[in-house]
Design goal:
The structure holds two protein chains of two kinds. By secondary structure, chain A is an alpha/beta fold. Chain A folds into two domains: 132 residues, Response regulator (Rossmann fold, 3-Layer(aba) Sandwich), CATH 3.40.50; 178 residues, Response regulator (Rossmann fold, 3-Layer(aba) Sandwich), CATH 3.40.50. Helices cover 41% and strands 19% of the residues of chain A. Chain A contains eleven helices and 14 strands. In chain A, strands 2-1-3-4-5-11 form a six-stranded parallel sheet, sandwiched between helices. In chain A, α5 runs parallel beside α6, α5 runs antiparallel to α10 and α7 runs parallel beside α8. Chain A is globular. The N terminus of chain A is likely disordered. By secondary structure, chain B is mainly α. Chain B has two domains: 72 residues, no CATH class; 268 residues, ABC transporter involved in vitamin B12 uptake, BtuC, CATH 1.10.3470. In chain B, a hairpin with a 4-residue loop joins β2 and β3. The radius of gyration of chain B is 22 Å and the shape is globular. The mean pLDDT of chain B is 90.
Chain lengths: 357, 359
């Protein structure tokens, strides 16, 4: 061994030991698509971040950047966080998928967690929640609450996650009310209070007396409140301030346990690339309190449905189910596999209209 | 008593001093705002305006300034021609989108063939797409005397719908498992606009610098530049001077649309990589601010675009390092334009103290 290599080895060892000795807190970064005050999607991710801070105290430092557009800007923000010394970065919107993969390639020592996507790498995990389980409970209540038999649905983007939710809500509304009809409006945004309010108003004018939303703001709740006799459900966050009416229940995203577990894994050095898709059972999806505006027997059956979804004894997509064009999809008693659900790009039989192409 | 007195000639000194003063005022008031939010104003201002250029990681941020600034320069240069002539194209965002769609469509049509002819063809398609989209309000104005501000702005929303439909339909990645968004052009060698990703160089950056020089020469040395300036300052004199106002509308719309389309193409083939539903992030609107901040002058626009890029990138650093809310950064960017408009009064008016204005 020459002197040079020995010296080089010593330098590397020295630099390694400094990193090991430095009791720097573990740095966890979060990239948000909306503002932390949206009251919905981003708000709940930020609650998860705060839970991480609370759980680890000084051992962990968290940073976040909000309102990051999906695309070239996201890539820069991610790279900047990695340069800033982040050890673990959560990218919390579907559109961050390619930027996350690109930046992860450049920083193999930084761990990435991408929400709702499907591209993985050695240092990129994906995670999402089975929101469609919550949609099943929502559809079950909505189908019985509607008097006009018209349920309005504000879709964000026609991607599988949203289509899954529409199908699940429809199947369970139809099961309790065969006359129910869904009207779907695509807002092409995750967060735009003005557009969301407009969509809600249009649906109400078309006779909808229940509004389901897959967008992140509370604007549709406010529009329903103004209309007076329209039922809504909190989306992503409890939105309890609109209860007990119009908001009669909600789907709550609870990211805190996952964020804490993944941060712990990084601290312990046991982090591995994983694909997590948890539902009501694991606590990632919560059903917000069903208010007294809902008749007691409906509330009881909704809670029973929730519990059977949680225990795994019932699957939200159980046959017999046909696709919209009438072709058979699931046979009697058959349940949908995760692959089909992940890429779901078709409506089930009975839904009208077309998925925008 | 302070009164305003109109200057007979706009002040040349203030024309240059106003943007500088607007930046200084923004730093001061921004500092107050940050102090009110409980952050150190000096540290925050330093993070936003200096860290991207001189910090430890400046090697990463400097190239990012080029990436963020290039589309702003391209679009603002195009807009400056029309704005000088009193032709208000507010819809550059839409032309940017259509340019990106047309350029990307050509590239994707050839996938996976490799050839050096593909990228030039994409540029042509991008420029053509933007130009044609801008000519819609242009032709409507010439033929039916419609308001180009309204028509061009409304066409932005049409373009956004077109973009969504392309990302979900015709241009969707067939291998994308049903998710919206096209193939990644930056990963397709013949269609990529990158020259060096680490240096922040793509062909759009090169073209932005070329556009600055081209605009400078045209406006100061060429008859067309003279006609543009004349039409803006005195439409009647321009008509007597042989300017065809209808042709001028079409040419100015075409220039701004073409450059916006080119900016869209370079963005989609490089930094953004793919046509996605929310591919556009507002460059077309920000460029309007850049054009005015730069006094509609090519060199001024170059500097203004650099400054805007700086506040974006510095703003992100401030968010992530200092925990500043995103809205505070946007507020500060808004202040910049606000103060510019305010200080601009001084180039046309003189402040008089203690005297009543003579009516």
């Amino acid at each position: 061994m020459t002197m040079k290599t020995i010296l080089a080895g010593a330098t590397i060892a020295a630099s390694l030991s400094t990193t090991a000795f430095a009791d720097d807190p573990t740095k966890v970064g979060f990239v948000y698509v909306g503002p932390v005050g949206d009251g919905g999607w981003t708000y709940e991710h930020d609650q998860g971040r705060l839970a991480v801070e609370e759980a680890f105290g000084d051992a962990v430092e968290t940073v976040y950047v909000e309102n990051v557009p999906e695309g070239a800007d996201a890539e820069r923000v991610l790279q900047q966080m990695a340069l800033g010394g982040a050890d673990l970065i959560f990218t919390t919107s579907f559109g961050y998928m390619d930027p996350t993969i690109n930046v992860a390639e450049k920083f193999p020592d930084v761990m990435f967690e991408h929400a709702t996507g499907y591209k993985m790498a050695d240092n990129v995990s994906v995670y999402s929640a089975r929101f469609y389980e919550g949609r099943a409970v929502q559809g079950h209540i909505a189908g019985q609450m509607t008097e006009s038999n018209v349920i309005g649905y504000i879709g964000s983007f026609p991607i599988p996650e949203v289509i899954r939710g529409i199908n699940s809500a429809y199947i369970h509304a139809k099961a309790v009310n065969p006359d129910v009809e869904f009207k779907i409006v695509w807002a092409y945004t995750w967060f735009d209070p003005a557009k969301e309010a407009e969509a809600a108003t249009v649906l109400i004018e078309q006779g909808a007396d229940v509004i389901l939303q897959h967008t992140d703001s509370t604007a549709p709740q406010a529009a329903a409140q103004a209309a007076g006799n329209v039922v809504t459900f909190g989306q992503a966050s409890d939105m309890a301030e609109f209860g007990p009416f119009p908001r009669v229940s909600s789907i709550i995203d609870n990211w805190a346990p996952y964020y804490i577990a993944r941060t712990q894994a990084v601290i312990d050095g046991t982090w591995e690339s994983t694909n997590t898709w948890d539902g009501i059972g694991a606590g990632m999806v919560g059903i917000g309190e069903i208010t007294d505006a809902v008749p007691a027997e409906v509330k009881a059956s909704a809670e029973a449905l929730r519990d059977s979804l949680a225990s795994g004894e019932y699957h939200a997509f159980t046959g017999p189910l046909n696709k919209q064009d009438g072709t058979a999809w699931l046979a009697e008693g058959e349940t949908a596999d995760d692959g089909t659900l992940a890429g779901m790009n078709f409506y089930v039989e009975g839904l009208t209209g077309e998925i925008p192409q | 008593m302070i009164t305003l007195e109109k200057r007979s000639q706009p002040s040349r000194v203030w024309a240059f001093a106003a943007p500088v003063m607007a930046v200084v005022l923004t730093m001061l008031c921004g500092g107050l705002l940050f102090a009110a939010l409980g952050k150190s104003p000096v540290e925050t201002i330093r993070t936003i305006f200096f860290d991207p250029l001189f910090s430890e990681f400046a090697w990463f941020y400097r190239p990012q300034l080029l990436i963020k600034g290039a589309p702003l320069v391209l679009i603002a240069i195009g807009l400056s021609f029309g704005f000088r002539a009193g032709i208000w194209n507010i819809g550059a965002e839409g032309q940017y989108i259509v340019g990106a769609i047309c350029g990307a469509a050509v590239g994707l049509a050839f996938y996976p063939t490799e050839s050096i002819f593909i990228f030039p063809l994409m540029i042509v398609a991008g420029i053509l797409g933007g130009t044609l989209w801008a000519l819609i309000p242009g032709i409507l104005k010439v033929k039916f005397d419609t308001n180009e501000i309204l028509v061009s702005l409304m066409l932005v929303y049409v373009a956004e719908q077109l973009l969504a439909s392309m990302a979900l339909g015709a241009l969707r990645n067939p291998d994308g498992m049903g998710f919206p968004g096209s193939r990644n052009l930056a990963k397709y060698d013949s269609a990529s606009s990158w020259i060096s990703e680490n240096a922040g160089m793509h062909w759009g950056v090169v073209l932005a610098f070329v556009a600055v020089i081209f605009a400078y020469v045209t406006l100061s040395r060429h008859l067309f530049g003279f006609q543009v300036r004349l039409a803006g300052q005195s439409p009647r004199a321009a008509r007597f001077g042989g300017v065809n106002p209808q042709a001028l509308v079409l040419i100015c719309m075409a220039i701004s649309g073409g450059l916006a389309g080119a900016a869209g193409l370079f963005e989609v083939a490089g930094p953004a990589g793919q046509i996605s539903i929310d591919f556009n992030v507002g460059y077309g609107f920000t460029a309007i601010i850049v054009a005015f901040l730069g006094r509609l002058h090519p060199i001024g626009i170059l500097l203004a675009a650099g400054l805007m890029a700086l506040t974006y990138i510095g703003g992100e650093i401030a968010q992530s390092n200092l925990g500043l809310p995103g809205a505070a950064i946007q507020l500060m960017q808004g202040m910049l334009l606000f103060f510019l408009l305010m200080v601009d009064v001084l180039s046309n008016y003189r402040l008089r103290l203690g005297k009543k204005a003579i009516v």
